[in-house]
Here is the input.
Amino acid sequence: MSVQPKLVVVGSIGIDTIETPHEKQLDILGGSASYACAASSFFCRTGMVGVVGSDFPDVHRQSWRAMDIDLDGLQTVAGETFRWHGVYEAHMDNRSTISTELGVFADFSPILPEVYRDAPYLFLGNIEPALQLRVLEQMHHPKFVLVDTMDLWINIARESLLRVIGKVTMLTLNESEARLLTGDHTLLAAAKQLLKMGPEYVLIKKGESGSMLFTQTQIFMLHAYPLEHFKDPTGAGDTFAGGFIGKLAELDECTPSAIRRAMAYGSVVASFGVEEFSLRRLAHIDMKDIEQRYAAFVEMSRIS
Ligand code: AMP
Here is the structure.
């Protein structure tokens, strides 16, 4: 019998081709759910909801199992796995999408295993909003629901995205997406509008500059963990969000202090993730590495 996951994550699972100014990696594991589950699995039992095709290499399932990720919500169907090809510009702060092939995602209908439905924490990772809604509707009474999105869905599925945002506890998105969704330029003005859409918390990601958390009464800012070198920023936001909600589920309290600590853990896990392509670095670190970097991060952020 499966152990009930404390956290359920839905998102994309893909085979990526990534070109940075330094190297090109073909056919590597990617997708919002892959990164988020790898990050959250350090902190709590995580159930993955997604779909892959019959071409999906079994070695990836094995590495998720080694991370103790529950795969009962992962469907394997006839057809091709989602594929994405991206190219980064010189300093890796901008990238272009060369191609996206939906493959089996085109007809995906998420069905949650019974044991997932009582999970108290839910992360609706970046995926079509209609699919996020379908997952949310199958959950019984989640205590904390985080949703992520991207410019594509803001542009082509705005209405269903707004429906999802109206039902969640926290919305996370990056600064350009916050501006695109609200039409406001300053992050404070954008966050105020986003809070009016329903969530109690808005968490805006600013890449290397970190993240900002907004509620009706508070603002909290956190820089990203400084790195001298990184190899691939793909999935950094998903890793941050997965680490954040995984830690929050472990703490199992939604106080301002728990949320701030969880954000710092999310940053730390994301800082490891970008040091290698795909999940390669995350697969080779342990809690000792995370705690060491967390302690250094807390020290760097201390004001008095
Ligand atoms: P991020 O760097 O946070 O944008 O996440 C990158 C991951 O998102 C890659 O591993 C891709 O496989 C995945 N991805 C790219 N396009 C999409 C899309 N339209 N929907 C869902 N996931 C996507």
Summary: The first strand starts at residue 7 and ends at 10. DSSP finds ten helices and 13 strands in the chain. The pocket of adenosine monophosphate is lined by residues 12, 14, 16, 30-32, 84, 100, 126-127, 152, 234-235, 237-238 (CB under 6 Å).
